[in-house]
Write a structure and sequence with these properties.
Endonuclease Iii, domain 2; Endonuclease III, domain 1; 2 domains; 210 residues; mainly alpha; 13 helices
Length: 210
């Protein structure tokens, strides 16, 4: 059983945002621009991870369109994916590689309920065993589907770019460099991510995450 802080309500996000703003004036500056940060809680389970696979390497708009087609065809559950033909999955917009990943996820038989009580490191280790689920996807799941307050996703390009602008870095930080930077934002790294995404949207005039 983990003892990690869980973000359950907007008040949790506000608490984290205030803590970050008090600890670093640049976060205070970003928060003044973004205003209230979104809760961004999502359900947990198979469909969320399938949606994450769909979102890989395509635009937010394309991912939303493909997910809509899968939902309309009722292809969002593990048994439905296992029973569907490649043609049906391709018709919804999945590439050959994503069809392979979707089937691997369906066959992985992950105990999603057990993940709720597992430490974040164990959640990420379990999910990344599935082909097509990398560290970024596992971290996003821990953050939004499980509400973990201290998980960050330094491989995210929008977070890297937002950090570059906000912290006036000479170049976009690498995943490793941003992971190191984020250690200073513990125990509210997931709120730092929300703040950086919101800041990215203002700085770049586009969404950084679906």
């Amino acid at each position: 059983m983990h003892s990690e802080r869980i973000i359950t309500a907007p008040a949790c996000v506000s608490e984290g945002a205030q803590w970050l703003a008090a600890s670093d004036p640049r976060f205070a500056k970003a928060l003044a621009l973004t205003g209230t940060l979104p809760l961004r809680r999502r359900p947990d389970g198979f469909a969320q991870l399938l949606s994450a696979i769909v979102s890989q390497q395509v635009s937010v708009a394309a991912a939303s369109a493909i997910w809509g087609r899968l939902r309309d065809a009722r292809l969002t559950g593990p048994r439905k994916i296992q029973g569907a033909s490649d043609e049906a999955l391709r018709a919804a917009g999945l590439s050959r590689q994503k069809i392979h990943y979707a089937r691997a996820l369906a066959e992985a038989r992950i105990n999603y309920a057990a993940l709720r009580d597992a430490p974040s490191d164990a959640v990420i280790a379990t999910l990344t065993e599935v082909p097509g689920i990398g560290v970024w996807t596992a971290e996003i799941y821990a953050m939004f589907s499980l509400g973990r307050a201290d998980v960050f996703a330094p491989g995210d390009l929008a977070l890297q770019e937002a950090a570059r602008i906000l912290f006036e870095l000479p170049e976009r930080p690498s995943e490793r460099a941003l992971r190191q930077m984020a250690e200073d934002w513990s125990p509210w790294r997931a709120v730092a991510a929300r703040l950086l995404w919101a800041y990215y949207k203002i700085a770049k005039q586009r969404e950084g995450i679906r």
